[in-house]
Amino acid sequence: MKAMILAAGLGTRLKPFTNNHPKALAEVNGKSLLQRNVEYLKSFGITEIMINVHHFASQIIESISNNSGWGTKIIISDETDEPLETGGGLKKAAWFFQDSDEPFILLNADILTDLDLEKLLEYHKLNKALATLAVSNRDTSRYFLFDENNLLSGWENIKTNQKIITRPNSNLTRKAFSGLHIISPEIFKHITQTGKFSMVDVYLELSKTYIIKGFDQGNCKFLDVGKPESIAQAELMFD
Q1: In terms of Cα–Cα distance, which of 171, 233, 204 is closest to 86?
Q2: CA distance 112 to 145
Q3: pLDDT tens sequence for the chain (239 residues)
Q4: Closest Cα partner for 89 from 5, 163, 32, 145?
Q5: Which is nearest to 47 in space by CA: 123, 104, 118?
Q6: Which fold has domain 2-237?
Q7: At 38, phi and psi to the nearest 5?
Q8: Is the sign of the CA dihedral 29, 35, 41, 45 positive or negative?
């Protein structure tokens, strides 16, 4: 199985660190977020990894080179001209995944988790999903909406009251997306967006026709390390 780590973001929530560094190199107990996620993937036998870069790209490339990819084969997807967001970034890297029918992992560089990827893969295959999204019941401002079978059916921003329903259902549940996906390569045949776009838009469009599932991550460790104060929290949660 292969994976992609999304590391091209500007990391504006992590200022002032990101005034001079990419967010992926923020450290938790002496290890960068990037290193921790590479080692997390490696612990499940994933050693072929794509990483997209934009903000202070050279620092990420240098860190990977200096550490020999932490024992993995890392390929860089260069977005230094323009960040393509989550969807555009993945689409640019499609060639990396299309030589196999095996699902792949996509995750944000600024999350830390110990979610069991083998269980996620098993659930994904069992449901013959096009994509499966790790979700939880934590509080946030934007939610995916799922039906009683954890089938993606919409999206809602509770701050702006914007709501998009893709599969009408009177009994939808809000769940917070954790920035970790498992995706079947078939998805590339169905992505119609071009340039810069979000995977949220892709999922909402495809959920009208295809199976996009939510996977309840349960009681696993999870933290969005997006703000300076979350670094201290992460250091208590992750050795």
Answers
A1: 204
A2: 23
A3: 999 999 999 999 999 999 999 999 999 999 999 999 999 999 999 999 999 999 999 999 999 999 999 999 999 999 999 999 999 999 999 999 999 999 999 999 999 999 999 999 999 999 999 999 999 999 999 999 999 999 999 999 999 999 999 999 999 999 999 999 999 999 999 999 999 999 999 999 999 999 999 999 999 999 999 889 999 999 999 99
A4: 5
A5: 104
A6: Spore Coat Polysaccharide Biosynthesis Protein SpsA; Chain A (3.90.550)
A7: -65, -45
A8: negative
Q: What is the 3-state secondary structure (H, E, C) of 71-133?
A: HCEEEEEECCCCCCHHHHHHHHCHHHHCCCCCCEEEEECCEEECCCHHHHHHHHHHCCCCEEE
Antiparallel, parallel or unpaired: β 131-136 and 212-216 = parallel
Query: Measured at the alpha carbon of residue 75, what is the angle toward residues 65 and 88, in degrees to the nearest 5?
Result: 130
Query: How do 152-157 and 162-165 pair as beta strands?
Result: antiparallel
Residue whose tokens read 């024992």: 71
Q: Round to the nearest angstrom and report the end-to-end CA distance of the chain.
A: 26
- Residue 42: exposed, middle, or buried by beta-carbon count in 10 A (0-12, 13-18, 19+)? middle
